[in-house]
Amino acid sequence: LGGNLYNPGHAADGSTSTAAVSDPAYHNATLTIDLGKPCLFNAIFIAHGPSAMGFCRRVAVLTSLDGKHFSQQHVGPGTRRVTSLCIIKPVLARYIRLQAIIPGDRAWSIGEVYIQ
Questions:
Q1: Is residue 25's pLDDT more than 90?
Q2: Is 13 strand, coil or helix?
């Protein structure tokens, strides 16, 4: 896991009691996930963990096969507790980048990311 959030590993540690967290002013903050190999998916769920209100107003999903060239697949609204981002057409990617397009009122908090 990478990006510019504090403790990015908390976004995939199996516990929603810990979280990767952004700075309070976090326009374009990112979390990049390496799936290890190309995988097909069409939904991402972001559990905001201990800070149920730690969501951004708009979040983008970008994907890449090589980790260098990313293309935007979806932009959707952030929501309290769990943000659900459903992509109409399944995507094949090794890397998934979540990017805060429009910040919310509080720091962005990612307790766990679930990919389907």
A1: no
A2: coil
The angle subtended at Cα 38 by Cα 59 and Cα 55, nearest 5°, is 15
Token duo for residue 88: 């109409």
Total-model pTM: 0.93
Segment 32-75, tens digit of pLDDT? 999 999 999 999 999 999 888 999 999 999 999 999 999 999 99
Name the DSSP class of 33: E
* CB within 8 Å of 95: residues ≥ 6 apart: 32, 33, 34, 35, 63, 64, 65, 66, 67, 70
Tokens 């403790």 -> residue: 7
111 by Cβ neighbours in 10 Å (0-12 / 13-18 / 19+) ranks as buried
Contacts of residue 8, Cβ cutoff 8 Å, sequence gap at least 6: 1, 2, 20, 31
The strand ranges marked E within 1-116 are 2-3, 20-21, 30-47, 58-64, 71-77, 82-102, 109-110, 112-115
